[in-house]
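Q: Can someone sanity-check these two? First one:
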Amino acid sequence: MRLGLICRPFSFHGGVETATAGLLTALRRAGHDVELISTRRQASVPGLVVRRVPTLRHPSALRLISFAVAARAAAGRHGYDLVQSHERALRQDLYRAGEGCHGAYLEAMGRKLAGINPYHRLVLALERRIFRLRAARHVVAISRQGKEEIERRYGTDPQRVTLIYNGVDLERFHPDNRGRHRRQTRATLRIPDEAWTVLFVGSGFERKGLGPLLEAFAAVADAGSRLVVTGKGDVARYQSTAARLGIADRTIWTGPQQEVERFYAAADAVALPARYEPFGNVHLEALASGVPVLSSARAGGSEIVRRGENGWVAAEPTAGPIAEGLAALRDGPPGGWASGARASVERFTYAAQAQAFTALYDLLRR
């Protein structure tokens, strides 16, 4: 299969970028001839043709639409068997809805749809073209609730929406990392060996629930516990919150980290109580590392979390339910969390993800 894949610039580390890179590698191993359509900021990928298209950088609405127009033109020039987009493009055979529904995101963040800025209006218009007006022949959702959300909000035929979960690198993220990296990483972060440690990984602190997590941590953690915050966001704002709550000396801010597996190895629990999260690769990475996850029910990744087995699901991303979950993770089952956490994600491989996409390609080619 000669496949044109439209996506924003990515690298082989970090969040959504890691997921894209992992899927791309697995598709190539499955025998597909994949070419990447991206912007001029996309780095070269060994053995892969990269079709870089010109885009306007500012403002954000022009950047979005200029990429959509240029990507459509590039896809049309090169005669692909199928065009798959991970972005909201003007035309594609297959759209992977990795960011969920933008309207649902805006509502979750408390932003009224009326009066929103031109960028958000454009994103919503592109979504309508894809989900309602068939600017994509088929849609891939990355969680059950994402699939249901698309169908409910846009009236999309359920037969046009297929669920394909993300994959995870089961070698990079492994419980054995605890023996390799835990002590050194804790020493670097100045975390005592015995300190119960919660890890938050994510960029976009507000959407991913850092505020209520700080409140919950302050309510349940003892003086020896630590909260490690890894990722990008308004650090100063949340440092002020930590100081107000009296946990500034127990909260560690690391910024984004390429070797995030070391931080999972140092943690006793991972918390991602997101207000809106289509899936969340953090769920898979943490569980693959043998670390229990506290998720909110609003995150698609909560679909693989089982209370008392591999983590906890907070019904709402607010301090009370999060604190209840943190207490449960701290107390833990008698045998610990590692084996149950790891076992729960061993089927979520990039190879399985690529196999599911391949089956869908075959269906669309008939």
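And here is the second, same format, sequence then tokens:
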Amino acid sequence: MARNLTVGIGGFGAVGRKVAEALDAGVEGLELKAVSARDHAKARGNMAGFAHAVPVVALGDLADCDIVVEGLPAAVFDEIASPAVERGRIFVPTSVGQLLPRPELIERARQTGARIVAPTGALLGLDAVRAAAEGDIRSVTMVTRKPPGGLVGAPHLVENDISVEGLTEAKLVFSGSARDGAKGFPANVNVAAALALAGIGPDRTRLDVWADPGVDRNCHRIEVKADSCDFTLEIANVPSDENPRTGKVTALSVLACLKGLVAPLKVGS
């Protein structure tokens, strides 16, 4: 029998902890080996109920694992991504937007044999976009609506002095390319980056971001026009209890992605 693939998880918050709990409970073909977190003591405490608690290590040491999962603030992305790629590992980023300004990371993965596998995350229908991209996609537009509190602190809002406090109606806070959107909302619109990478690229993919007090979920609407098909996708994600900027489905998507790496049957492209 083939050995289990070992998994290291960077970040022990809304995404990392949920994935770690599932792996600890048992996933055929996978073994949780290490986690990394800013607060080591807190991370060890959160593993108190685990059947097999694992070491809390430095970010770079996660590259000792076969698979490295990233669920961290954008500021430390390189500290986990670079070692994983240099060691030829399978790198699973949730901060997909951080790949856009780092094309050299993808080229380096080609040289080292690493794989960068971006999970679907909060984006419904990514397989359909990838399939359409094998033909000719004319346009991709994404409209995101989030509760205002989930956008507070985003660099685009801070830099442009845009307030979302006390809103009584929806407010358009960004309209532009997915590349600029990922830069301005690094904790909010990784779905737009994934959409861009799956389809026609970050400069041609259009993105609108609304702060909407009328919604209590993170809502995305995607319209794709292609030579093979036209389709519209809508999803309303329940925000995570730990972090309102992240949907609950994100951790589940990472887990599904990991299972797909070892499963004898994988459904979906």
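A (reply): Looked at the second one. The chain has two domains: 5-121+249-262, 126-243. The mean pLDDT is 93.
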